[in-house]
Amino acid sequence: MVNPAEIPTASVRDLPKDGLTLLDVRESDEWAAGHAPEAVHIPLGDLPARVDELAEFPDDRPVYVVCRTGGRSARAAAWLNASGWDAVNVAGGMKSWHTEGRDVVGDGPGEPEIL
């Protein structure tokens, strides 16, 4: 088990406004309800099988990993770092993303929301 203190973490307000490489590891229903427009969606349980999809990410900056509140993304960031990636957990997850006023889009009708 990785010590949570050893996982690189950043708050939403400290994230770059442009050029952000963002991986959302929430479940599909959470993603559909509301997500960051620039994020790539790979649910946590699918990450080991789909990690090759991250090869399209720029290798000169970290992968910021987000979930609802920061728990699943911390596990994903720990796994990615152990697998040779430069991954950073987004503290507070999409709840903080939304609270900080960052853009959120949904895949259905109505206002996007963070589940």
Automatic annotation (TrEMBL):
GO terms for molecular function: transferase activity. Keywords: Transferase. It comes from Amycolatopsis antarctica. It comes from the Bacteria. Signal peptide: none annotated. This is Sulfurtransferase. InterPro entries: GlpE_sulfurtransferase, Rhodanese-like_dom, Rhodanese-like_dom_sf. Residues 16-106 form the Rhodanese domain.
